[in-house]
Amino acid sequence: MKKTFITAAVAGLLAAAPAMAELTFTALSYRTGPYAANGIPFADGYQDYFTLLNERDGGIGGEKVNLLECETGYNTEKGVECYEATKGQGALVYQPLSTGITYQLIPKATADGIPVHSMGYGRTSAKNGEVFRNIFNYPANYWDGASVAIKHLLDVNDGSLEGKKIALVYHNSAYGKEPIRTLEEAAKKHGFELSLLPVDHPGQEQKSQWLQIRREKPDFVLMWGWGVMNQVAIQEAVNIRFPMENFIGIWWSGSENDVLPAGDKANGYKALTFHNVGMDFPVFDDIQKHVVDSGKAAGAGDQIGTALYNRGLYAAMLAAEAAKTAQEIHGVAAITPAQMRDGMENLVIDEPKMASLGLPGFGPSFSVSCQNHGGDGMVAVSQWDASAKSWGLITEFAQSDQDILNPLIDEDSAAFAAENAITPGCN
Amino acid sequence: MFYREAGDFKTSYVDDNQTFPIKFDRYRYYFVLFIAFAIIPLMINSYWVKAIFLPFLIYSIAAIGLNILVGYCGQVSLGTGGFMAVGAYAVYKLMTAFPEINILFHVLIAGGITSIVGVLFGLPSLRIKGFYLAVATLAAQFFLVWLFNRVPWFYNYSASGQISAPERTIFGIAVTGPNTQSWATYMFCLVFLTFCAIIARNLTRGAVGRKWMAIRDMDIAAEIIGVNPLSAKMTAFAVSSFFIGIAGALFFAVYLGAVEVGEVFGINKSFLVLFMIIIGGLGSIFGSFAGAAFLVLLPVFLKNFLVGALGWPTDLAAHLEFMIVGGLIVVFLIAEPHGLAQLWRVAKEKLRLWPFPY
User: Fold this and answer.
1) pLDDT, tens digit, for every residue of B42-52?
2) Is A18 a residue whose pLDDT tops 70?
3) Considering chain A, what percentage of its residues have pLDDT values greater than 90?
4) Residue A85 in contact with partner chain B when CB distance is under 8 A
5) Residues A78 and A201 reside in one and the same domain
6) In this complex, do B47 and A7 lie within 8 Å of one another by their Cβ atoms?
């Protein structure tokens, strides 16, 4: 026992590093573990954007950005440790990049008054800002993704999915189960048949699921996968010669890592996305000049321009813009987490702003309000070109079916409010 | 010099049979209890509680539970994660179904439910032993996790399949939910740990524990001298699962607050708790504490040291952490196959004679 206390004492002392006077952002990243292949590019993009702001602009509004990185390994317990370790150092916003950790943080961060931005993951009904005061999930969520996927399928089927069969291959966790309700509602509305095929963590074994697909011959397959599960699923789809253009993944199943192992056969695989792909944006020249050339690139520096790197960059950009908005509202440069929350709630992203940041046309325009923490649900479909080894958008950013989603969001957030005795409201 | 029994005369059987017969040991025990109950709650903050003390206390309960089964009764089990899940889901269902009843009773009842499930999955132990039993309990692990993922009743039909703990209080002080005070959650778990450790220690000193050890050492001989293997093995499974169920309930309700069964109570959890008791020492209550402390604190300490103090990249530190912890496990097991508890025993023997060994 004695040894225990000494060890604990040392650990605690070391954890209490001095608080910085700068703007503190946290990256709860995972560069290790079964999901590292996806976690690394996102973490690199997130980190590089803040490095760029520090190097090029001297921070945000004259305040340097201090980025605390904490390794979670996609593990909830480590996520808790990371949250506790960083919150005392003035972290402005949390982006855990894990639905499990997001669910953990929703009540905790709300109690501590720190905002959480779960961009394209987490609890979908957090879109209702009257209930989830500190949780944001703009610009799009899983239900938007599911809805736009169906919309895209309607487009390619001349507006009718009557009698078609759609299979959902999903990670058997809170994350993968998210789209089921939306798809069930959409199945009722459009008259298609939905079959559910769960894949258990980490997803290396999918023979039986794809055997079932081969037997049932669904017209389309949707996938909610992450990490190694994506690669395996795409490889299995190739093995059973499933037509790739009928196979659509959510944005977390649409990175280069997922399609490259299957080689040329993966050509035509589609994935949803809520931001643009590729490197044809002026900001990448700045990153090359200020970050890469000065040797300050995060990680190995080999991920720049990949789909997940862009997403990390986008997440960092939205956080930085929200901080700027907060600085404008409150007239101070060194903002607090509560002020950051106000900044996120009043965030407006439009085309001129994105162009001035060197990201013209990178993502949809949207504005956040107290009632709507989730943006407008604009999602596009991208397709993999195996010969060019690149993703390309094949549709415009389209809005999800709000008729289906809004009642579901109201229902789920009302349930959360009742469970936790929250009175919905904007004050 | 320390740990001397010379001059420490016992005048009654009660004195003679106490848990810590050596005066120094006894005072040290009271001292640790005093620190744990009276000093730490006053100076604790949320990082210490969430990152260090809660996992340590809760894993200690689980390790004590598993140690009863594996260390004292010799029945290898790989179902710890599944049994913890039973405790967690039982306490969740009880908390949401009977919100007016005190959470203290919910945790105890969750332990009771887990012990029933544990006995059910322990039945095969009457026919199979060793590695084969380990495989049978492995089935329990996978079956239980699958069950809680598959049947929506267990998670109250929530869209995501997650369970999250509502706020519950004891004497008006919140111990679950987001608005808890650090000391309250710490004290809640500490009381359970103290309760479990005292019960476990006394059970293993009494007739029940001696039957378990007889079964462990040689089951046929034990049967010949009159130990009923059915009752001995089943009580071991029941008591062990009771503690593991309490640990699972606290892990969900107090420590994490929201749980996804496949991720939190997967096979990794079973292995982690098994490693704790192997490193700490099989068949020792102190070993359960030492093993839990080793595997909970060392990674946190290494992370803080490598990333916080040396400023290394997080991924390098995380990989190095695996290597250091793994390497230390190998070193400890080579240096002392009976675990940290044996090192402690040897140290005590040496200290009795120090500084004049013969």
Assistant:
1) 999 889 999 99
2) no
3) 66
4) yes
5) no
6) no
Residues A260 and A284 in one domain: no
Does position A4 have pLDDT exceeding 80, yes or no?
no
Of B46, B263, B300, the CB nearest to A201: B263
Mean pLDDT of A385-409: 91
- pLDDT at position B1: 66
Question: Tens digit of pLDDT for each residue in B5-28?
Answer: 777 888 999 888 888 888 888 899
Burial A310-332 (b: 16+ CB within 10 A, else e): bbbbbbbbbbbbbbbbbbeebee
Across residues B309-333, what is the average pLDDT?
88
The Cα of A196 is separated from the nearest Cα of chain B by a number of Å equal to 12
What are the helix (H) ranges across A16-121?
Answer: 36-52, 76-87, 99-112
Going by pLDDT thresholds of 50, 70 and 90, the confidence category of residue B311 is: confident
CATH of the domain at A81: 3.40.50.2300
Looking at the structure, do residues A186 and A321 belong to the same domain, yes or no? no
Kindly report the nearest CA distance between residue B301 and chain A, in angstroms: 5
Label residue B157 exposed, middle or buried (CB < 10 Å: 0-12, 13-18, 19+). exposed
pLDDT in tens, B237-271: 999 999 999 999 999 999 999 898 888 999 999 99
CB spacing of A8 vs B52 below 8 angstroms: yes
Provide the angle, in degrees to the nearest 10, between the axes of the packed helices B130-150 and B103-122.
130
CA distances from A130 to A412, A416, B166 (A): 13, 12, 20
* Contact status of A71 with chain B (Cβ, < 8 Å): yes
Contact residues, chain A, for B181 at CB < 8 Å: none
> Which residues does residue B91 pair with via DSSP β-bridges, in sequence order?
none
- Measured CA to CA, the distance from residue B206 to residue A181 in angstroms comes to 55
Torsion of CA B118, B120, B125, B131, to 10 degrees: -60
Split at pLDDT 50, 70, 90, the class of A21 is low
B266, B308, B315 member nearest A14 (Cβ): B308
Q: Are residues A316 and A212 in the same domain?
A: no
Residue A230 lies in a domain: yes
Question: A66, A57, A126: which is closest to A92 by C-alpha?
Answer: A66
Residue A181 and residue B309: Cβ atoms within 8 Å?
Answer: no
Say if CB B196 and CB B288 are below 8 A apart.
Answer: no
- Chain A residues in contact with B85 (beta carbon < 8 A): none
Say whether pLDDT at A8 is over 70: no
Residue A421 lies in a domain: no
**Strand A398-399 with A378-385, pairing:** antiparallel
Total count of domains within chain A: 2
Domain that holds residue A146: 142-273+380-406
Q: Where are the domains of chain B?
A: 45-267
Contacts with A6 (C-beta within 8 Å, 6 or more apart), sequence order: none
**Contact (CB<8Å) B257/A107:** yes
What are the chain A neighbours of B293 within 8 Å (beta carbons)?
3-4, 7
β-strands B163-164, A193-199: how paired? Answer: unpaired
Look at A81-85, A385-389, B53-57, B353-357 and tell me which has the smallest mean pLDDT.
B353-357
Residue A8 located in a structural domain: no
Same domain, A267 and A321: no
d(CA A327, CA A321): 10
Q: CB of A178 within 8 Å of any CB in chain B?
A: yes
Structural domain contains residue A91? yes
Q: Which residues contact B313 (CB under 8 A, 6 or more apart)?
A: A31, A69
The answer to whether B46 contacts A173, with C-beta atoms less than 8 Å apart, is: no
For residues B254 and B165, give the distance between their C-alpha atoms in angstroms, rounded to a whole number: 8
State whether A352 and A385 are in the same domain: no
